[in-house]
Amino acid sequence: MLQKLTIKNYAIIDHLEVDFSGNLNVITGETGAGKSIVLGALSLILGERADPGMLLDKASKCVIEGIFKVKKSQVAAFFQEHELDMEDQLIIRREISTAGKSRAFVNDTPVNLGQLTELSQSLVDLHQQFDTQDLENSDFQREVLDALVNQPTVMQQYQQQYQRYAQVQRELKQLQNQRDSANKELDYNKFLLDELSDAAFGANEIEDLDAELKVLSHAEEIRNTLSRVYFQLNEDEQPILQQLKQILSSVQALASYHKDAPAVAERLQSAYVELQDISSEIGRMNDQVQFDGARIEHVNERVSLGYKLLKKHAVHSTAELLAIQEQLNNSIEGVLNLDDRLASLETELETLRAALQKLAETITAARLKVAEPFEKKVNELLAQVGMPNARLKASIMQGALNPNGQDTIEFLFDANKSGQFAPIRKVASGGELSRLMLCIKSLVAKSVALPTLIFDEIDTGISGEAARQVSFIMEDMAKAHQIICITHQPQIAGKADAHYFVYKDARDGKVHTNVRLLTREERINKIAQMLSGEKPTAAALENARELVK
Questions:
Q1: Residue 70 has pLDDT above 90, yes or no
Q2: For residue 510, what are the β-bridge partners?
Q3: How far apart are CA 427 and CA 441, in angstroms?
Q4: What does the record list as coiled-coil region(s) (predicted)?
Q5: 95 φ, ψ to 5°?
Q6: Which residues have CB under 8 Å from 199's CB, separation 6+?
Q7: Nearest to 24 by CA among 494, 544, 508, 536
Q8: Which range has the top average pLDDT, 276-280, 339-343, 355-359, 459-463?
Q9: Rounded to an integer, what distance in angstroms lies between the CA atom of residue 192 and that of residue 241?
Q10: Region of poorest pLDDT, from 43-52, 112-121, 208-217, 268-277
């Protein structure tokens, strides 16, 4: 329940505070006085987007604050989900800065616009003139029946299972497309894999074979060179090693004469040992190099095959070639495993479909059960509000499973008891839609937990007895809900528990909107003016007193 609304620096409102009754609150005033501006400000704390151009004083921020009295159970899930502190009193504040930036707070904790909208859906139903378009919407029509069914647990269970069902459908479709695409490449990938598997290259084999081939191809030249060097080191007329040994002996003989001779001798000794080792290595290399025609042919074939595959796959090393082989193997295995995954998903999909079908049939049965009483009650109310020949029919057609069951729901309307029903959007006028929406909401209100219902000129296009009957409906709704209603009908104003008058006054050369709660005598006078004009007659005043009673 909205207890208090405070508006600062919004449109033509400087500073306004309104304390609301918990039952039927009526707001009246001349056209253009600012009644809808008050609701516009209220809509900001319910999550509507802010317009920086609505600031009255561009140098000051705009602040809209609403104080709500709520049952903790009503909003507990929201506060728990968003980790907010819950108190007995709920304060929602919206601020619009001079720069146009908007901020929202719930009990002084910042929240985003999405969170604010989510919270407001548990607090207030705001019905404006253009909202009658919702009545033409199939989703709204379904929500009306579901509100009357009032089985949220079943619907929640269905929707959770449907989400999984839709997810499995998407996964299945994706895998089927993946399989179809992969099957097109499977044969070619198998050919590539067989080619690499038959080649059976080991790690770094192509590079090693290429180096071996160079040695084998120049074996004679290598042996000749190594033999000559080995001969020069060890077997020539004056072998290099023997000459170095003699030089070493000569320098060692100088050790007693020159202080640097031992160091030089030591270095020569090291060079002699190193050269001996080189000589042995050259001998070993020479022994290993053998010309082998058969080996050359084999290595040459392997290297040629290796380079052919490298070029084919646009890579440069054996390691890259082996990586491609591994990728091809994984890809083929993955394709072969797709069938198992597809079979598993198909089984799960069928199980989900069967469970959903069962739940959908339960939901359909519940909707069919409430549809006839709903039609009967709406038609009775339509007669009550001046449409005795109008008829509403709720058409429920079963079809494919969808996020809300298996039903296509459409409200059909016959304005003249002709027996020719057609979709509301095609045949109902604006005035008919307004009264029809009121009748429907008065029924739905009994089944939903919304504490506050707001109507902005829902009585447009009616008068006389129809307006009187609408006032009875409003009065009845106000027994269980807080109603805030902007109206031009004296019959409705007469039923108010609290009557607020919106007016303009001029201060400091500026026009401002104000609201005041009327006393009983002021109410009688304003209602009399609504009946007969600015200067009400005695009869109008007497009529107004009757309405106020």
A1: no
A2: 507
A3: 20
A4: 155-185, 335-369
A5: -125, 140
A6: 305, 306, 309
A7: 494
A8: 355-359
A9: 58
A10: 208-217
Cα separation, 397 vs 94, in Å, equals 44
Spell out the SS3 assignment of 26-94: EEEECCCCCHHHHHHHHHHCCCCCCCHHHECCCCCCEEEEEEEECCHHHHHHHHHHCCCCCCCEEEEEE
Contact, 407 vs 102, CB < 8 A?
no
How large is the angle between the packed helices 430-444 and 318-384, nearest 10 degrees? 100
Place of tokens 């000129």: 457
Q: DSSP string spanning 314-325? A: T--SHHHHHHHH
Residue 487 DSSP label? -
Burial label for 86, CB within 10 Å (0-12, 13-18, 19+), is middle
For residues 518 and 501, the answer to whether their CB atoms sit within 8 Å is: yes
How far apart CA 277 and CA 133 sit, in angstroms, is: 101
Q: Of 87-101, 105-119, 225-239, 518-532, give the lowest mean pLDDT range.
A: 225-239
Q: Where are the domains of the chain?
A: 1-123+450-518, 177-337
Residue in this structure with the two tokens 């890809």, named with its chain if needed: 331
pLDDT at position 129, please?
A: 41
Question: What CATH superfamily is the domain 1-123+450-518?
Answer: P-loop containing nucleotide triphosphate hydrolases (3.40.50.300)
pLDDT digits (tens, 9 = 90+) for 380-428: 999 888 888 999 999 999 999 999 999 999 999 998 888 889 988 788 7
End-to-end CA distance of the chain: 25
Contact at 8 Å (CB) between 515 and 18? yes
> Contact at 8 Å (CB) between 29 and 501?
yes
DSSP 203-263: TTHHHHHHHHHHHHHTHHHHHHHHHHHHHHHHTSSS-HHHHHHHHHHHHHTTTTT-TTHHH
Residue pair 218/319 in contact by the 8 Å Cβ criterion: no
Q: Which of 101-115, 135-149, 161-175 has the lowest mean pLDDT?
A: 135-149
User: Three-state secondary structure along 381-440?
Assistant: HHHHCCCCCCEEEEEEEEEEEECCEEEEEEEEEECCCCCCCEEHHHHCCHHHHHHHHHHH
